[in-house]
């Protein structure tokens, strides 16, 4: 039975466990947690030393590993995209990720997973991306510790996966807040699928540091004071500094609540998540009662706080930790993913392509080596048998020749793979010819989205896709469906779209205004005060014609990505 180690490298600690991946779920073989020494966040050698010590104490010899990455620079988005092949999806998400993370495409790691089970023409997918340097650093720490990383899971997706398995959090949607040591992640989860994710660089470590600084006590003592305040049974007279620490905790909790509430208000108003009525709070600092209380009061939401034991019960590991232990929600979600037996599902894996290719080459070399050893062994065995048979009787030569002939025929069987390679080479030429006449839809959509004014947002965009190259003077027809903040939104949109050189025959065919008094949460961007302009949600449709300027652009971009000289 295959064994697998899962590792989460955080800012202040490392968590790990080992599981057996088989026909049915089993409890982890062990679960371990190590606090990183001061300065380890910026020192890979200290991380490696800590992880090596953890693995040594666990007494494991397993090397297969999955990493769980959580960082403020990690981006997760849920999108509904036109159905397309794998290469076009990856290129589309790559360009979309560069809009969020200001880095070149070759410095990002991007992947996606299809979450909808049906065969919808517009599949709903979740894309995730991170700077390649962030992922490579985590992989380097694991590999220098003696592990072999085969998968990189995403912390926000893992957290939503774990919380989605708990009773009482399914339904139309909920907010998920994961309070870590240095990072707090806010997610909007609808039908167990993260729609939006935002990370802020604030967490429980901020409270501990402030207690240590203001009371002039060691960091470990400050952490103990914070945990004592978090326990409802704590007696304020038992610790001399507890009352002062309580005031510090309250001040820092206010800061975290303010940032979290601001993000959730934005999600609710701008993205329309006004029907969500509860929030799930997890993480190492979620045990601070004041944090959950203030979030519930400020946002008027019902707050649920599943503890570490309740989360770990999902993987039958609740006996490993005490209720006051650290945050295990991301690691639990990673275990659930690793135990998933659906081999055909497309899942997010941020393992860089370079590392994947290296793993593939290693497996190929191992397979080739095993085949070589088997062939050499077979040849030696046949030779020994032949010599033995020659010593016994001359008539056994015909039998030996027949065996050698059978081996020769079997080796000739592999010649078909050479023919297959030639066929692939022959198919490459028409494929490249077809690509050169293809339309650059990712670039087209990127420019249209960038030119849309801030007081309008696209709800639907329909383009008449060509069957081959763009031809004719008219180009392609495109239809827009939009919503705006006021009755001026269509005019602003026409003005902005006219700046795009490849759009002509711009027109707004319909425009419907819902007065502000009949709707709630309508934005006021672009609405001049006192000009008699009636504000309110305006639904309108526009149309245009796309010229032929995109006919050859995508060919050079794709061929460059494929490493093909033109």
Automatic annotation (TrEMBL):
This is Pilus assembly protein PilM. The keyword Signal does not apply. Gene3D superfamilies: 3.30.1490.300, 3.30.420.40. It comes from the Bacteria. Keywords: Membrane, Transmembrane, Transmembrane helix. It holds the Pfam family PilM_2. InterPro entries: ATPase_NBD, FtsA/MreB, PilM. The chain crosses the membrane at residues 365-384.
């Amino acid at each position: 039975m295959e064994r697998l180690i899962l590792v989460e490298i955080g800012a202040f600690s490392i968590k790990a466990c080992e599981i057996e991946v088989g026909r049915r779920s089993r409890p982890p073989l062990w679960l371990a947690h190590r606090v990183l020494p001061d300065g380890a966040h910026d020192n890979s050698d200290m991380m490696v030393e800590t992880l090596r010590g953890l693995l040594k104490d666990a007494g494991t010899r397993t090397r297969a590993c999955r990493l769980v990455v959580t960082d403020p620079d990690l981006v997760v988005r849920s999108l509904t995209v036109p159905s397309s092949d794998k290469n076009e999806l990856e290129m589309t998400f790559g360009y979309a990720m560069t809009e969020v993370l200001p880095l070149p495409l070759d410095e990002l790691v991007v992947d996606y997973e299809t979450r909808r089970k049906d065969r919808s023409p517009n599949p709903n997918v979740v894309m995730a991306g991170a700077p390649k340097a962030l992922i490579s650093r985590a992989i380097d720490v694991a590999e220098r510790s003696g592990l072999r990383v085969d998968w990189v899971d995403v912390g926000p997706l893992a957290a939503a996966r774990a919380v989605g398995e708990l009773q009482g959090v399914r339904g139309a949607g909920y907010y998920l807040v994961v309070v870590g040591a240095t990072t707090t992640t806010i997610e909007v989860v609808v039908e167990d699928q993260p729609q939006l994710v935002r990370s802020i660089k604030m967490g429980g470590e901020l409270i501990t540091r402030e207690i240590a600084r203001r009371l002039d006590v060691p960091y470990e003592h400050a952490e103990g004071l914070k945990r004592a305040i978090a326990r409802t049974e704590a007696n304020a007279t038992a610790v001399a500094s507890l009352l002062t620490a309580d005031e510090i905790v309250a001040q820092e909790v206010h800061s975290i609540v303010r940032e979290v509430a601001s993000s959730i208000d934005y999600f609710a108003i701008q993205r329309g998540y006004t029907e969500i009525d509860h929030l799930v709070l997890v993480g190492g600092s979620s045990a601070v009662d004041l944090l959950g209380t203030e979030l519930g009061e400020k946002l008027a939401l019902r707050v649920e706080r599943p503890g570490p034991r309740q989360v770990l019960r999902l993987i039958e590991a609740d006996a490993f930790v005490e209720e006051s232990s650290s945050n295990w929600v991301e690691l639990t979600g990673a275990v659930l993913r690793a135990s998933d037996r659906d081999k055909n599902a497309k899942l997010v894996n941020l393992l860089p392509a370079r590392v994947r290719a290296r793993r593939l080459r290693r497996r190929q070399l191992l397979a080739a080596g095993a085949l070589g050893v088997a062939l050499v062994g077979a040849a030696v065995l046949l030779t020994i048998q032949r010599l033995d048979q020659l010593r016994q009787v001359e008539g056994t030569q015909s039998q030996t020749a027949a065996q050698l002939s059978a081996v020769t025929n079997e080796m000739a069987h592999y010649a078909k793979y050479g023919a297959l390679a030639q066929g692939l080479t022959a198919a490459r030429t028409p494929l490249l010819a077809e690509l050169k006449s293809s339309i650059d839809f990712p670039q087209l959509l990127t420019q249209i989205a960038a030119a849309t004014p801030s007081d309008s947002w696209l709800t639907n965009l329909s383009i008449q896709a060509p069957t081959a190259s763009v031809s004719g003077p008219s180009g392609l027809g495109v239809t827009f469906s939009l919503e705006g903040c006021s009755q001026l939104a269509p005019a602003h949109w026409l003005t902005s779209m006219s700046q795009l050189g490849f759009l002509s025959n711009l027109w707004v065919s319909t425009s419907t205004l819902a007065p502000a008094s009949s709707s709630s949460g309508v934005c006021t961007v672009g609405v001049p005060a006192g000009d008699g302009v009636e504000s309110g949600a305006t639904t309108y449709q526009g149309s245009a014609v796309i010229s032929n300027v995109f006919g050859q652009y995508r060919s050079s971009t794709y061929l460059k990505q494929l490493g093909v000289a033109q």
